Amino acid sequence: MKLKVFITLSILLTTLSFAQEKKKEKVKFNQELATSLGADQYGMKAYTIVMLTTGSTKIDDKAKMGALMKGHMANIGKLADEGKIIVAGPFLEKNKENYRGMFIFNTKSKEEAEQWVKTDPAVQAGVFSYEIFPWYGSAALPLYLKHHEEISKENP
């Protein structure tokens, strides 16, 4: 019985080690892609994160709030289509900072990011306020957007 377990474990470990070796194969560097994405020598680049916070305006009218949120979502879509916004989404839990959601903008300019976030109807109405932070991340981040429509059945 012990021999069977030993042999089974040996086969499993050997298989896993081969799988790990295969994962370690280096992908060939693609200069054209790196340049098109604005990557530095580490494959990274500067972005700007905007943290949406609870604003000073509270709107109890559900129809008005619904219209603002519809405009908010449409604006996110427009900015994404223009290549300005790369990531957007709400936080799923309340937090002490009152962060409601975040955007990652495809710019290293805080001023440019602020211009873009001010196009949001919910920000204009004061439902959301914001904080802006410089951020350094993978230059390949924008590439996920082209696949998002392939995996989403509906738009929010």
Automatic annotation (TrEMBL):
At the highest ranks, the source species' classification is: Bacteria, Pseudomonadati, Bacteroidota, Flavobacteriia, Flavobacteriales
- InterPro entries registered for this protein in UniProt: Dimeric_a/b-barrel (IPR011008), YCII (IPR005545)
**What family does this belong to?**
Belongs to the YciI family.
Pfam families annotated for this entry? YCII (PF03795)
Annotated YCII-related domain residues: 63-135
* Annotated signal sequence range: 1-19
Q: What is this protein called?
A: YCII-related domain-containing protein
Going by the UniProt record, its keywords in alphabetical order are: Signal
What highest taxon heads this organism's lineage? Bacteria
